[in-house]
Design goal:
With about 150 residues, this protein is an alpha/beta fold. The longest helix is centred in the first third of the chain and has 13 residues. The protein is about 30% helix and about 25% strand. It has a single domain, classed as Glutaredoxin. It is built from four helices and seven strands, in the order H-E-H-E-H-E-E-H-E-E-E.
Length: about 150
């Protein structure tokens, strides 16, 4: 390799190291405009590197029904990321596992607003289940059990 070519390639690698990194996952969070825990949850994903856009919705039922989220698994907000939905206070590790493994799911859900879940304060003894909702309409199942260590 010629010296000039080598220097040019080396300079390019140093000047643009971020070019080899994957783009941040784009996430849209649908939430009630008066909900503070939703903002905390979305902020945690933003700090983890997600490109988060928050949309205040007047009718959250319409969003959840449109995505076919089972009503018994509804949480307080609904996010869309890379072809999946995240319903309620889904923890970051569950979302990252979902996006890494790409299972045939419609999404993940944490029903209700469990104390100690992401965005719901610090409760080290929190226990709750993250449910997987299959695309084929079969019954949801436990994807991740959050238990104290």
């Amino acid at each position: 390799m010629k010296r000039r070519t080598f220097i040019s390639l080396a300079a390019s690698a140093v000047a643009a190291p971020g070019m080899v990194l994957a783009a941040a996952p784009k996430m849209t969070v649908h939430k009630d405009p008066n909900c503070g825990c939703c903002a905390a949850w979305a902020s945690a994903f933003g700090k983890a590197g997600y490109d988060v856009r928050t949309v205040n919705e007047a009718d959250m039922d319409a969003v959840k029904n449109g995505l076919k989220v089972p009503s018994d698994l509804w949480g307080c907000h609904t996010a869309e990321v890379d072809g999946y939905y995240l319903e309620g206070h889904v923890p970051l590790e569950a979302a990252e596992k979902l996006l890494r493994e790409r299972p045939p799911l419609a999404g993940l859900a944490v029903a209700g607003m469990p104390s100690g879940s992401l965005g719901m304060g610090d409760a080290p003894r929190a226990t709750y289940d993250v449910m997987a909702v299959p695309r084929d309409g079969t019954a949801p199942y436990v994807y991740l059990a959050v238990r104290p260590s």
